Amino acid sequence: xxxxxxxxxxxxxxxxxxxxxxxxxxxxxxxxxxxxxxxxxxxxxxxxxxxxxxxxxxxxxxxxxxxxxxxxxxxxxxxxxxxxxxxxxxxxxxxxxxxxxxxxxxxxxxxxxxxxxxxxxxxxxxxxxxxxxxxxxxxxxxxxxxxxxxxxxxxxxxxxxxxxxxxxxxxxxxxxxxxxxxxxxxxxxxxxxxxxxxxxxxxxxxxxxxxxxxxxxxxxxxxxxxxxxxxxxxxxxxxxxxxxxxxxxxxxxxxxxx
Length: 258
Fold this sequence. Notes:
Elements: E1 7-14, H1 16-29, E2 37-43, E3 47-50, H2 61-66, E4 70-73, E5 81-83, E6 87-95, H3 110-122, E7 128-129, H4 132-141, H5 148-154, E8 167-169, E9 172-181, E10 185-193, H6 199-205, H7 209-222, H8 226-230, H9 236-247, H10 250-256
Parallel strand pairs: 1-2, 3-4
Antiparallel strand pairs: 2-6, 3-5, 6-10, 7-8, 8-9, 9-10
Helix pairs in contact: 3-9, 3-10, 6-7
């Protein structure tokens, strides 16, 4: 075990509903004096998780009929995420008053993004954290007549758009974030793309063949798997070890607490 000041749950492989409920239990039960918690997970079987405000109407009805795929809802915002063996997830639960919780919601992601950039560097992947201004510029494109329709289509999928401090290589997302804040504490969630294939996601979110084609190619251009970046399969165990090593670095924590 690398860390002594964090309570770490070992990697859990289960259906996504189990992971959603476990994250809720951990967040609701944390006390101010408790250690912060890491909960690593992979969903099995594959499923689709919708953001808090997304409705089932966003989904392709034909896909729902033809596929035996579970649809889930999370408490956090954001948009649809396809979960399964291709995606490693991390819940970080911080008790109320923890120094890594920032009063500014956007800035609360900063340390998380920087930690993931450092962890991926250990794995030979040179990534960066998205500045808020860059993420906001993409959001502005959704309001422009010439780009709005396309950007809103990409926005149906979490990995089709950028949010502040998410982790990218070039312009392609590797680690996506969301957050739940409660009186008891804060839950930060990360989804790390191990392998990226947009075929199923495009079928689920595209209502027409044209939309599916645009989603399949567009989201492929906006996200990338670690296996592609590294030229090899990077295991969940490697990623977990790298991230936990970064968290024990007092220098990193001092630089990210603001």
